[in-house]
# Entry
Amino acid sequence: MFQEQLEKDIFITKVDIRQAIADLTAIETSFQTNITKEFEVDVSPEIVREPLGSTIRFLCTPRGRGPFNVVWSRLDGQALPSRATIGTGPGYELTILDVDYTDAGRYVCSVTNPDGSNRDTGTLFVERPDLPIKVRIQEPTRLVKRQGDQAEFICEAIQFNSAANYVLTWRKDGGQLPSKAVEQSGVLYIPDLDQNDLGRYTCTGSQRGRIDSATAEIMFGGRHNYSSPL
# Structure
């Protein structure tokens, strides 16, 4: 009889312990859920795209019960740029002056408060500045030829904005090219030269409304044998 009662009491105790553990687990889960809902961190903007030399800013906003301890860092583990400053609350703004290509990457705002910790990230892309297009013609830019020879000029953009396409076009003495001329991707080729092909040839580069030009010329026998003005 005593043995049966003892085993019954032990069984009841085990059931009570399991129930207590289940209750504690439920309370802990509810507590953590409330923390997650109440304590949020938001970095804005999520993505920054600015040209080299710009000043950029990320704003870190914690939402929840203060006080907050806010730390900015880089996700790759590198130190923040020496040109970086961090503001105090409520914005906790990360500012980087004169951004360089090496500053590109993800920045982490880590926040702790009495309820725990959380974080959010922002990404910085550093782009080439909006440079005006510049063109040049590869040497030689003055060709001395004989009738029946062929001529070729190569024009290239040596500075341009990589974010947009540019166009290179050739003209002769301010007008149309000879009908036999072949023009492709900045290369001008003229076969079987004759008197009408002598003159000044201009390559013009254009991009986003900006233009630049360079000039070359073709002559026979070392003398200017064309009537277009210099």
Summary: Residues 2-38 form the longest helix (37 residues). Residues 9 and 15 are 10 Å apart (CA to CA). Residues 10-15, 27-37, 224-230 have pLDDT under 50 and may be disordered.
